[in-house]
Structure formats: structure tokens, C-alpha cells
Amino acid sequence: MDLKKIKMVSVFCIFFLCFLTHFLYNWFPNVLFSVFFPVNESIWEHMKMMTSSILIWSALEYFLFKKYRISHNNFALSIFLEVTLSIIIFLIIYLPIYHFTGSIFILNLIVLFISIYFVNIISYYILNLRPLHKEILSIVGIILLYIVMGILTYNPPFNYIFFDKTENKYGINIYEL
């Protein structure tokens, strides 16, 4: 097993983890899970699903790197870029489609898969770079990203990205219309 094979497996594992993380808050509703997993069906809350799936898989990936003695650098930076760029790439692809077609389940899955695929390619190259010594900054960045996600869960702006059309509300049962 080498780095390229692990990153190929990562695409599918993260994609399937998204299905699990989509429902974790519903199964175990609590404050901690509300920060890491979607609390409603808004576009923004699904970014937490993708981000947390990447983070969970990265923990498992770390042990695979150790088990197979795979040389790599910039692990935390790679994770930070994966979670940040996954949100950006997903929204850049998804929002124009959403405006023309609305929410179509199969298109949502395709965009999710494409986003995960591209961030794993980027991660592969970051892991192969010389050490950039940005690990602490990357960990702080991941923590800040989740702080922002938590704040936006409890105090979402009144914007369609944060609106749950299925339950006609914003955020976590706070801003019902």
C-alpha cells in the first residue's frame, strides 16, 4: 500500500462516511454533535457533514500511514486544506446547479463526490511536499473552522444557504418561521 492508493481509498471512505455523519446529530442530539454534524437540511449544515467525514477519515488515515510506513509531510496542513477547500469547491460547483435545478439528490451526491475527489488530489500533493512547518497553524485553523461552524449553527444569517426548506427554519430549532 502506498500514498496514492490510500488517497484513492480515501475518496470512497470519506464519501461513505458522509452518509453516516449526515444522521449522527439526529441519533444523538447534543451540543457537541451539533457543532460537528448537520442539525438540519440546509446547504451550510451539509458542509459540516463533509468536513467531519474528512476529519474522521484523516484520523484513520494517520494510522494507515504508520502501519504501512508511508512517508509523508504536512499532515495537519493537508487536513486543513482538505476541509477548507472541500467547502469552497462544493459551494462553487453546487450553488449554480442549485439555482437552476433546485436540490436534486443524485446531483448533490455527484457534486459531493467530485469535491472529495479534488481535495484528495490536493492532499496527495501536499503530503508529498517538503515539510512546510505549518502544522500548528493548520490545527488552529481546523479548530477555528469548527468554532465558526458552531456559531453559524446557533446564529445563522438569514440567507438561503442556511435555510432548511424541509422544516422551514434556520439553524438549530431557534429561528423557525
Number of strands: 3
Proportion of residues in β-strands: under 5%
Mean pLDDT across the residues is 94
Taken from the alpha-carbon principal axes, the silhouette is globular
Structural class: mainly alpha
Computed CA radius of gyration, to the nearest angstrom: 17 Å
Number of domains: 1
User: What's the order of the H and E elements?
Assistant: HHHHHHEEE
Strand order of the largest sheet: 1-2-3
Give unreliable regions as ranges.
none
Q: In whole angstroms, how far apart are the ends?
A: 52 Å
Number of helices: 6
Tell me about the largest β-sheet. Answer: 3 strands, antiparallel
Helix share bin: over 70%
